[in-house]
Amino acid sequence: MAVFVGGVIAILLFYGAVLAVGVWAGTKQKNHGQEEVMLAGRSLGMFVGVLTLIATWVGGGFINGTAEAMFTNGLSWCQMPFGYSLSLLFGVLLFVKKMRAANYITMLDPFQNMYGARTGSLLFFPALMADVFWVGAILNALGSSLMVILGLNITISVIVSAVFAGAYTMAGGLYSVSYTDVIQLFLIVIGLVLAVPFAYHDPSVSQSAMAAHDWLGHVEPRGAGLWVDNFLLLVFGGIPWQAYVQRILSIRSTHIAQVMSFGAVIGCFCMAIPAAIAGIIGRGADWPNVPGFERNVTDAEASIILPLVMRYLTPNWVACLGLGAISAAAMSSADACILSSSSMFSRNIYKVAVRTGASDLEVLWVMRCAIVAVTTLATVIALTVESIYYLSFLCSDLVYVILFPQLLLVVHWSQGVNSYGCLSSYAVGLVLRLLCGEPGLGIPVTIELPLYDADTKEQLFPFRTLCMLCTMVTHAAVSRLAREAFTRGWLPRSWDVLGAFSRAGEAELAASGEEKPVKMGLHNPVFVEDSCKNTHL
Q: Which of 55, 169, 248, 486 meets the CB 3.0–4.6 Å disulfide criterion with 501?
């Protein structure tokens, strides 16, 4: 495929503009403090807040994955836009008010506050894997789009895009990410909305073929359990993300954060519509008679149906704007996830668990190094996994199974959980999920649950939800057992190796059933140090 020179120039200008805005936004930082870099000084208002949240959710995996699902299986299996949008609704109902009241900086703060620095830091790893897979899906979508529309090598496209995203994220932290999101969201809207009418009226697209196609799709009775499992995974596995928590904590007031989340739900739904229509158009196109393509779209190309529609069913100038939309969507989500994992590592791993005396400037440089590492890992994933939709599901898997029940309990039932329940449920959830298998990653199925399909090696039972519930029940049960054992004298306090019940008065607290006070510094002096330096903690 010949390289589209005009398109290459346009995309480089777009990258340069985004990088310039990111660097400019970085100059708004007043200091190198953690709140300033990671939360933009808790100063974002309604306008920037709602746009950056929509842009973060509507990534390359979101719009390309939506088009892919509509092209292959129809609306009934196009669950991502509905599930991820509703996750914002449940997020505001379950977590926004409580987490803002505690003035946390990252999603890991409540865990380390309750369980101690090292035990709480273990929750970083499923969060890191989720971010890496999500950024991988985004870069995969962007690289495929650049390959199809511009004729560029996918490896070069992915690497260059990753470098740009990492560069402006490093330049200004959340300020850069938020302000570039505003520009990127406008480009997404313009590009997608403009491309769809041109594609729909292309002579190669048959309106009768689109109408005749079963674009609604259907769910077989044997697949109902899998459908429910996937949907619940997207809804509740879409909540415990540092990228989301980072935004709700960066808003200047709780009321604005709540309204912003509700507005983002509507925005995400709306952004999925043109991508879904593009998938339907792709199904209705007579591809063997499309000039320049002249063959059928294979199953392996379903993940790039959106860029194919833009490249071959719209004029070149529209294709450039459409590519700008895909690129903007990719960048707006990639930078958010890169920053989120880097923020958690620099604060919760390095500052809290490893080097409590680190200065703010030292933490900033650690975060910059973490940005490079996360970007590199995501780039490798993007170049090794084919399906964008599969990657998008996979990134929420461990978040749903391990992080969601842990976060729900530590925020809403802090008086009933402790370090022993946390570690036990972590192990149970991880082991069960691995035993259920993941063929796409080469993990064999060890536990064959009811409805298991031996031919496809697929679990049709809602196994992820089962693993999540087992994690939650284990956490509550083991926490209760440990509390009874230590506070009633069944086990000597000297055996409390995790220090969960070492404070004076713990037995009386357990007997009274009162909730533990939310107090930063319960197990780790670094929170006390932060509270002296900043009124937010």
A: 486
